[in-house]
Design goal:
single chain; 255 residues; Rossmann fold; 2 domains; four-stranded parallel sheet
């Protein structure tokens, strides 16, 4: 099924405007998540971090103008650090008790952004890799599925606290899903996106059979996490599992 990115007026949940928030119930303590967003137009189905209906607690968003997918993923443009910090600070001032981002490649900015904030910051699902791998037995590894394997390198992994030799597999170069995300296209073929994400996981396991858990780097892949779980039989983690787990610990500790 193909879907087109709606206009903000038609469906603000698909690409929320600055300050938009979920109308759903709050966890204990009234915790609100802040999300710093790339500037994109591609659709964001349920499960995507950019869709506030993904969460059962309030979410606030800030878009970093000019932060295109290719500028963040492929170029790793450090000139974007300051505007990302500014957006995170604005969310903090708006009352967010924790902040995440809409691109796992922003792990590169984890240290600098965290130092500028008083609230917890989770730039990337890659922050889970070391913890997950430490819990695995017998030399098993935690592998990563990414939108672009050529661009995800040791610097990203080290910035997230993960091993530099973490097994990685990317979407196929000719995948429409990959093109939709990197080229910021208005149409998303959800069926193809699901197949492409599952295929990447299957390639990873065929090449690295020691992988016994998977992290989805891309924040646009969580809608297909269940399909990956069904195809591989492995636990699958992503930015939404990280947010729910860590925000849950925060609100439980504050109770």
């Amino acid at each position: 099924m193909s879907v087109r990115a709606p206009t903000l007026a038609a469906d603000a949940a698909a690409l929320p405007p600055e300050g938009a928030r979920s109308a759903l119930g709050r966890p204990g303590g009234g915790a609100t998540l802040g999300v710093v967003m790339l500037e994109t137009r591609f659709p964001r189905p349920l499960g995507d971090i950019g869709n506030p209906r993904t969460f059962d607690f309030p979410v606030r968003y800030r878009v970093v103008r000019g932060a295109s997918p290719r500028r963040v993923v492929v170029a790793g443009d450090r000139a974007l650090l300051a505007p990302f910090v500014d957006a995170a600070r604005a969310l903090e001032e708006d009352g967010a008790c924790a902040i995440a981002t809409s691109c796992g490649f922003l792990a590169l900015f984890q240290r600098e952004m965290a130092a500028a904030l008083a609230t917890p910051l989770w730039t990337s699902s890659l922050l889970q890799v070391a913890e997950i791998e430490a819990a695995l037995a017998g030399g098993a590894r935690c592998g990563v599925i990414t939108v672009d394997a050529a661009s995800l390198g040791e610097a990203h992994l080290r910035a997230a606290g993960a091993a530099a030799d973490t097994p990685i597999e990317g979407l196929a170069i000719d995948s429409r899903f990959r093109a939709t995300l990197l080229d910021d296209e208005e149409m998303l073929d959800e069926d193809e996106a699901r197949r492409a994400t599952v295929a990447a996981a299957e390639r990873l396991l065929a090449r690295r059979p020691e992988v016994r858990a998977i992290v989805l780097e891309c924040t646009n892949m969580p809608p297909y996490a269940d399909a990956v779980r069904a195809a591989t039989g492995l636990p699958v983690h992503d930015i939404t599992t990280l947010v729910r787990s860590r925000l849950g610990r925060m609100t439980k500790g504050a109770a």
